[in-house]
Specification:
CATH superfamily of one domain: Amidase signature (AS) domain
Bound molecules: glutamine
Radius of gyration: 21 Å
Shape: globular
Amino acid sequence: MSFPWQSAIEIREQVQTGAVSAVDVARAHLDRAETLNPTLACFLTIDHEGALAAAAQVDRAQKAGETLGPLAGVPVAVKDNLCTRGVRTTCASKILGDYIPPYDAHVVEALRASGAVILGKTNLDEFAMGSSNENSAFGNVANPWALDRAPGGSSGGSACATAAGIVPIALGSDTGGSVRQPAAFCGITAIKPTYGRVSRYGLVAFASSLDQVGPMARSVREAAALLEIVAGHDRRDATSADREVGTYRAACDRGVKGLRVGVVRDLVDGLQDDDVRRAAQASLAALEKEGATLVDVALPHAKHAVSVYYLIATAEASSNLARFDGIRYGLRVPGQDLTETYTNTRARGFGPEVRRRIMLGTYALSAGYYDAFYLKAQRVRTLIRRDYDTAFEQCDVVCTPTTPTPAFALGEKTDDPLEMYLADIFTLPPSLAGLPAISTPCGKSSNGLPIGLQLVAPPFEEERLCSVAQAVEDACGLVGERPPAIG
Ligand code: GLN
């Protein structure tokens, strides 16, 4: 039995029957985390003691004959922008370098209640701003499939830890693609739920009209299982939807017979990257073989998504990040003049990308520019949502690749922020429209890098995403394949 590579579902079963102890499972995974982290840098904090204590509690409940929670004994990694009570939560920023939250995020509470064992906090782009994890103040993460490649961002640490067999499942956050793009780069599955499906209570805010927490896993079924745990109404988040949680795991067995898959032809056939184009076309053919119908749909306004997103997200970020002023968090020198504290804190506390975005966002919101930039961006956002509404009159899910290329090299795009922003071209439209989206592996490039396929559904139709993604996984997923670079 090879521990670190077991699925969450297998681990839960064996812990429940007593075939293995949760403490042994936790030890094996902690070992792997501690061995690999110097190479991969996917964890900012490994909570050795906390994990063992949580596992011991699961074992006690098992011995007492209790029915265990749905993730009992399952090791999980949590992105370091989700608050964990008593455990440092940095957002990969110096400004929160020593911040220890006094409370758990809603999704962290849900994990603990399900019996999951939180191994630690994963690396990310500072405040979740980035597409390569290179904006972390604490060093970049490596892609387990090729150590000189980016793992994607901003949930690069969670994607890497999952793909590297350190945890079977992890949580990330997705504002414009941050669970889907790293999932595509690292060969795993990730779901960006409908806006409002999962509470953001305790998620450090980046762009509030877009942020969502999302599950990441090595298989569609495990991602679905994790979504069932974290989804649901929470009155502490005013945008949380009061709707019943779906049966996402069961949806994985429903198949695709009769489902209409909308293909955005110009995005798929027009792809420059041969490997990505071929992988996407092959998985569409596989879906057709399984009984789905392919229909052509168009998203005429999707081409504006990058400009729209980088106006709206920076505007909201400039407002959300105003609270990091040196008075409430970090870097306050007692007795120092407050203006000086504020200037010093922001200059020393934030990295270059975060400062760039605060400046862009402040500019977009300033008097005289608000109508021309922010308001206009919001209008185009509505047009993007309408494109989807029209598409969904003809199809049940919309399919595009997740990213225009497989994982790019570390350092390749760091000198050109605009080039980096273009990596999000396919993940941004559903985010702007508030729609649920999944990325699942659909093949590999000629040099052995994973490729992801993105599926988008109407609001609260995550079940449909699970059914279709499962069919893609069955036809061409990477489940069971291990990245050769790390052994
Ligand atoms: N890459 C996008 C950005 O840099 C999206 C990030 C995210 O989803 N958190 O903003």
